[in-house]
Specification:
heterodimer; A: about 260 residues; alpha/beta; TIM Barrel; 9 helices; 10 strands; B: about 60 residues; Ubiquitin-like (UB roll); 5 strands; globular; Sulfur carrier protein ThiS (chain B); Mopterin_synth/thiamin_S_b (chain B); ThiS/MoaD-like (chain B); Beta-grasp_dom_sf (chain B); thiazole synthase activity (chain A)
């Protein structure tokens, strides 16, 4: 069982909590997929106290929360947000996002490494939202990260795994580091593919929350992730260019 | 004094951050605070004085991906 900073989730599906049609649908989706880890955020609290009601719902789900620094564009902003999240959510975990470009929400990987180093030295357990770049991955590990979360595709695009070669290379270079594909998943087959590549988990949000039937899609994602994981462990056949008959040729009748 | 709280102008009487949260009805709520971009832990709010023009962020749990 893969350990994420000492926690071994039964489910390899990490689920975001945003964009659901209602709190009830979010709750049903988390329960249907038997999710153990959900992502949350911090936003300005209004007079209606919506944040308190949301957190009551999350606490009732009995899951681990992974607070994010979504929307942060600089090191200082991300580090400050992480500190605020640690106090509110009472966890050293942080999904560290330092965004570098607005159209793709591509991580600012240089700022990410710096923020990860600062937070790691301060006792945070950092889940960095990164690209599949091997050099940056190495620097994140050197900065103290014990998990890497490369994107599959830009957040919310549902394009699947844009750079399968890069993701495979990352897996190959860091066989013992827990790796999570984070973002870009649209279909259960995308999630299954990530697991077939040897990834340890998949983090997604829009693919479930934005589906016509979020609860049904949550179940589908959970099953796909389990199927992909079992397939990987079962040592699949290598692809070949030429046909190889599966039925024995020996003994075939001469008609 | 004039403060910017969560991006909105406020005329507040409170002299420190803890008092401001009470004045704005945040007392008892689970929130995190920052003053002029710097995190202020809960147990330091009472000892954090406010000045005219300060920018305060009051954040709470929210859905996220």
């Amino acid at each position: 069982m893969t350990s994420f900073y000492g926690f071994e989730p039964a489910s390899r599906l990490f689920l975001g909590t945003s964009q659901y049609p209602s709190p009830k649908v979010l709750e049903d989706a988390v329960r249907a997929a038997k999710v153990d880890i959900v992502t949350v955020s911090l936003r300005r609290e209004g007079a209606d106290g919506a944040g308190q009601a949301f957190f009551d719902l999350i606490k009732a789900l009995d899951v681990r929360v992974l607070p994010n620094t979504a929307g942060c564009h600089g090191v200082k902003e991300a580090v400050t947000t992480a500190h605020m999240a640690r106090e509110v959510f009472g966890t050293p975990w942080v999904k560290l996002e330092v965004i570098g470009e607005n159209d793709t929400l591509c991580p600012d990987v240089i700022g990410l490494v710096e923020a990860a180093r600062i937070l790691g030295e301060d006792g945070f357990e950092v889940f960095p939202y990164c690209t599949e770049d091997l050099v940056i991955a190495e620097k994140l590990l050197s900065a103290g990260c014990k998990v890497l979360m490369p994107w599959g595709a830009p957040i919310g695009t549902a394009r699947g795994l844009n750079n399968e070669y890069g993701l495979r290379s990352l897996r190959g270079h860091f066989p013992d580091v827990p790796l999570v594909v984070d973002a870009g998943i649209g279909l259960p087959s995308h999630a299954a593919r990530a697991m077939e590549l040897g990834y340890d988990a998949v983090l997604l949000n829009s693919a479930v929350a934005g589906a016509g039937d979020p609860v049904g899609m949550a179940k589908a994602m959970a099953l796909a992730i389990e199927a992909g994981s079992l397939g990987r462990k079962a040592d699949p056949l290598d692809a070949r260019d030429m046909a190889v008959p599966s039925t024995p040729v020996f003994g075939k009748a001469m008609l | 004094m004039k403060l910017i709280v969560n991006g909105q102008q406020h005329e507040a009487a409170s002299q420190n951050l803890d008092a401001l949260l009470t004045e704005l009805d945040y007392a008892g709520r689970l929130v995190a605070t920052a003053l002029n971009g710097d995190f202020v832990p809960k147990d330091e709010r009472a000892a954090t004085p406010l000045a005219d023009g300060d920018k305060i962020e009051i954040l709470a749990p929210m859905k996220g991906g």
